[in-house]
Write a structure and sequence with these properties.
single chain, mainly alpha, 19 helices
């Protein structure tokens, strides 16, 4: 009987279950994450058509649609309209915004969404630690560090960043609820595992962003002892010779002859903005465009680079200043909603939950200063879900907001 009741649940309850599944799958399987997000949206649409149940877009959602529209219009007159318009489909996977805004209607659901994403990120961590690390170790000793850096992924660094912030928030909530030692041990172990995977992934932007966010989280919540313990875990890894060597290479990024970010930001981007003031089109900075522009400017840029390694640079260059203004309003609105929810939370649990989601988004934005993550398919899925939850602006409320069946 219970199985039948579970199977015969309402369409919106199924949409919620499928959204949780999408959040779990997103960190390690993009096709599966997209599939289950699409299924969730399909059930929401069915509930809308059949029963007239609303789908919430929110102001954050409307800003997303405006950003997509402007990007499309710019791309139609860009340097390669066919390619750019085809790539814009990636922005449609921000559709997690209306899905999350409609379905994440109370604290329990918001917490379960965090748990799902963290658990999926644990799978990714195990992939890094049990498959990638031994694979690099099998190389010659001198090539090990080069191999592990080469195998590192900027995308995976941001997945782990989100999960570390999420599990830290879940840990704080369990402490407030006086959860049992087993639960606290599990959350702490998850944090350590994610930290190890983050270090092995060897992406400095993610290292810096997650450290800043965790410090900010600890300061805002007053959990100084827990923060100190977590920072000791991070610092212990930071003193490893490979990590120190990786950080020492930062000076290369400040050398324009290196052909990295500095030359992209100070030479390539200004030249493209002068030549195409309205934008080159979405994902229009191809390796060919990058190399041609570099030759025209008399500089060298790294081979096979197809983006400018920063949201703040890539967006105005590709889809113009109007789209960039919309991006600032879009992200700013979500951060404001989350911060307001945390500030006006009725109790500590609501405050921690709202802060967790807000700082996860802030972590992505901060990492976006040195990485272009608005076009990263793996990151777009969690981006959309975070924006949807924050856009609803109800995380800090104490009362249940769902109008669905109590068993949902």
């Amino acid at each position: 009987m219970k199985y039948k009741q579970w199977w015969m649940a309402a369409a919106r309850i199924w949409a919620y279950r499928l959204l949780l599944t999408a959040a779990f799958l997103a960190p390690f399987s993009l096709p599966a994450g997209r599939l289950f997000l699409a299924l969730s949206l399909g059930f929401l649409l069915y509930a809308r058509i059949r029963h007239g149940e609303p789908i919430y877009c929110t102001r954050v959602g409307w800003l997303w649609l405006a950003f997509v529209l402007v990007s499309l219009l710019v791309s139609l007159q860009g340097i390669d309209p066919q390619r750019s318009v085809g790539d814009i489909s990636k922005l449609l996977w921000f559709a997690g915004i209306p899905a999350a805004a409609t379905l994440i209607t109370d604290r329990h659901r918001a917490s379960m969404l965090l748990v799902a994403y963290v658990n999926g990120s644990i799978v990714r961590s195990l992939d890094i630690l049990l498959l990638r690390l031994p694979g690099a170790w099998r190389q010659t000793e001198n090539a090990f560090m080069h191999e592990i850096i080469h195998r590192g992924s900027m995308t995976h660094g941001q997945v782990l960043l989100l999960a570390m912030i999420g599990v830290f928030g879940l840990l704080l909530m369990e402490i407030i609820k006086r959860g049992g030692w087993k639960v606290l041990a599990i959350k702490s172990s998850q944090f350590v595992l994610l930290t190890l995977a983050m270090l092995v992934n060897f992406k400095r932007g993610s290292w810096v962003a997650v450290t800043v966010i965790l410090v900010l989280f600890g300061v805002l919540t007053g959990k100084k002892r827990i923060l100190l313990l977590l920072l000791l875990v991070v610092l212990a890894g930071a003193f490893h010779p490979f990590v120190r060597a990786r950080m020492s290479h930062l000076r290369n990024e400040l050398d324009i002859k290196h052909g990295g970010r500095l030359v992209m930001w100070t030479k390539i981007a200004p030249a493209l903005l002068r030549e195409h003031p309205y934008g080159v089109g979405f994902r229009g900075v191809t390796p060919e465009v990058m190399q041609e522009t570099a030759r025209a400017q008399g500089v060298r840029v790294e081979e096979r680079r197809n983006h400018l390694h920063s949201n703040l640079v890539e967006i105005p260059v590709t889809v113009g200043w109007v789209a960039f203004l919309l991006y600032v309003l879009w992200m700013g609105t979500a951060l404001w909603k989350g911060s307001t929810a945390a500030w006006h939370a009725g109790d500590p649990l609501g405050r921690i939950l709202a802060l967790t989601y807000t700082l996860m988004l802030f972590g992505l934005i901060l990492n976006g200063f040195v990485e272009y993550n608005m076009g990263d398919a793996y990151i777009v899925l969690p981006y959309g879900i975070l924006l949807g939850v924050l856009g609803r602006g109800t995380l800090g409320a104490a009362a249940r907001l769902s109008e669905l069946h109590p068993g949902s």
